[in-house]
């Protein structure tokens, strides 16, 4: 085979890397572990079953359905504002949703969200919350927040395995020609320009929460094309720039750059403007259990109001009050709660099943597509290392189908870590979400292990022998894909409208961007509506 | 018949000669090794010679209990001498780590070889008494014995140690002993009981020693000539680091992961400078904290202050503190400081320990390895120094070993900046330690107005009022005028400065 041909074939295979590796690679020994996520079965009850409405057994001012960050943030806001007659239902054993976490003898570790960037300084509610939980320890003489050093991601933060070597940082540098380097630089400069840009309405072109961004068509028109098309249009030809942009969109949105909206793709780079006394906008805050730590901060004062193992199955709007029917997984019984106000902090594809609402269902089916993800937590002993930068918090492989892994033990302070927990992230973005989801549900634990070993063996040749345990989580509907038209079209606005001034919505899929801050403000927004009505 | 007898006589006398040579060689090997390992060669040699001679006497005494099968006994003893003597140096090298019992093992080995040699001569004389006239016998046996001893004492320093090394010398003579035994077995096979069993044993012994001979070459070559200039007298890998101790005529050195920690030759310069300024600045400190310093040398200096009530030492590596609490040669250097009842040792991670600590100390000696990687860099961070501040009494003083301000001025002053940012008033100083070069320390305290002390404890070899004044003065080539970043967990600026500066320095 000619070398060129071989390379072409190689890159074609890279796209189908999952398939290729899962077929060709077979583990020599069985690695202990399991596929976590029994609740997806509970969740499927919702899809497959019809439920009666039992007699009302409880009366509440407010019921919140969903204990992810959006729901917890809504509960926190209600509580802060004196509401004590409310209930929060979640189907899982623990609240946290996509920010949930696990723990073993070595470390706590995330099952989903694992970090937040330094917050923008114009988000007082958010920085208040971070001050409450001592992530911000004070203000310096200029009024800039001082971040708790134990929560700031320790150095070394990131490394990229590229051209046979681990380089410092994720922006490709090692082995690039001067032309390629200057293209990378041009890209970063353009992102900086976007970061500072303001629209003709005086608002930031790219802001958090997204809904406070400018409506200037100069920028909103970027929502009509894909990120890849925009790169083409702006004459970015270097494969390194293209890879980097694609890596970033898959990392934050589980979506490839050739399908995601350019506005959202750019938002990833341009919306972070935070500045602290001891941190900048590109620094991040993280914990062994990832955003599970933040979820705990939110939920622990709210424990009396939280009811877990409670699967909401039906929400019936009414004249004076809504009825929330839920299935108590502990007792296998259906229960009904009457609530004057209700917040649905659940994703819209779930709400389709909870509410009998044809208009919403049609909108959701047409515009919201949910990317599936796989996350694995690997307990490993000391791994062989390739040349270059040392083990970091985030460890990414150039041109891999995965996103690399995060070292959950990174924030542990001790000098010596004989064992670590590595959290491996894989957005299933090669084919359509539906195809990927079906394929994902069919894979066995061993299949997943083969897939991730095929990826990680490149950088840790001995990883197979060094894994002591590997648990796998499959997120069938991890996050809504911000495809062109979602951010600045009409869909999100219509889906955010409350029903009867009685049923309100809060979820990151309504923001279109799945990040902690959006969830946090989604919750506050819905809580304010409850308080206002 | 007469001819045969005379042949046998010469054969047995050659055996005496070889036994005598071997016996003395084993004794010399043990003596040399003991002085390598334990130091003080006069003591080692005289005690070993004493034990050896005494044990030969014991052997002679015991020989009267051997009445039957004298030739068989002779050969059995010969083989046993070959085995024990041959492996003696390996046994001693390997058992040095099992510190407490090392002397016991040393003298046991010397005693057994001595006793066996002591048994052999009288038994041999009794074998030969039927074959040689008594007057003749005594003179011949002792002549060969003393010639053997002379030969041994000449070839040992001139040929054996330089060309074979200790391990192979003892193995070589062990092999000789076994070969003599085998030859005699063959020669006198009709007179020997259990001939076959003895032959099998002899062959096994021979093989074992040959294998060890071949391997010893490899091991010694690898460890001695590749890594260190001086012979390694002890080395081990703990979960945390590789510890190696080397010794030459002048000094004993400790290496952690191949980096020199101290040389017994000039460590007093380092430890006097590290410990006395902060101890005096703290004014009669009672509670002392030491972090790192698992060699007990800083504690040795601390214990010179009668005001000290307790010393808490936190060092990650239990193997290290155990070594320095049990090895005679190391106890010699640290004056058994870890055995002092005032000293309490915690083998824990320093950062974690300090974070959980709620006690307050009057003086803290922070003696960590240089910040050459991210996991050690944390121990020089702003967050660490904040915790240190919490652990220090209002009038307390801490000191931080802060690498070389000459080689790495940015690193040194970065530690200074970081301490200041954490709220300390700092007093940087430096001195010259031949093994390290120009070295730096920074005192950190909560109150301004430091006054250098007028007097130091008695018996200082380096520090005094005048040297202290010099140490506080920094010439231009140990300064930097660059604005330095505070070392934080999330930037680890110090590790970067350190890599840069030491990298450049070592590249030159
Ligand atoms: C793999 C992965 C990695 C991520 N990494 C990051 C990151 O590093 N940083 C970041 O900021 N964001 C990250 N995110 C995005 C993350 O989704 C958001 O930050 C945020 O946690 C979403 O919160 P939410 O409340 O909007 O949604 P969800 O977390 O989806 O919350 C929905 C909740 O509703 C519950 N629920 C669903 N159906 C029912 C029902 N019928 N009855 C009762 N309860 C129900 C669920 O159990 C869940 O708790 C990541 C997401 C994933 C999937």
Number of domains of chain B: 2
Side by side, the strands of the main sheet of chain B go: 7-6-5-8-9-11-10
Query: How can the largest sheet of chain B be summarized?
Result: 7 strands, mixed
Pair with the most extensive interface? A-B, 17 and 24 residues
Q: Please give the share of residues in helix of chain B.
A: 55-70%
What characteristic shape of chain B results from the CA principal axes?
Answer: elongated
Query: Any idea what the radius of gyration of chain A is?
Result: 23 Å
Q: How would the global form of chain A be characterised? A: globular
Mean pLDDT over all positions of chain A: 92
CATH level-3 fold name of the domain at 40-98 and 302-367 and 484-532 in chain A: FAD/NAD(P)-binding domain
- Which CATH-level-2 architecture of the domain at 40-98 and 302-367 and 484-532 in chain A? 3-Layer(bba) Sandwich
CATH superfamily of the largest domain in chain B: Vaccinia Virus protein VP39
Sheet with the most strands of chain A?
A: 8 strands, mixed
Structural class of chain A: alpha/beta
The string of secondary-structure elements of chain B, in order, is HHHHHHHEEEEHEHEHHEHEHHEHEEHH
- Beta-sheet strand percentage of chain B? 5-15%
Counting helices, strands and paired strands, the structural category of chain B is alpha/beta
Radius of gyration of chain B: 30 Å
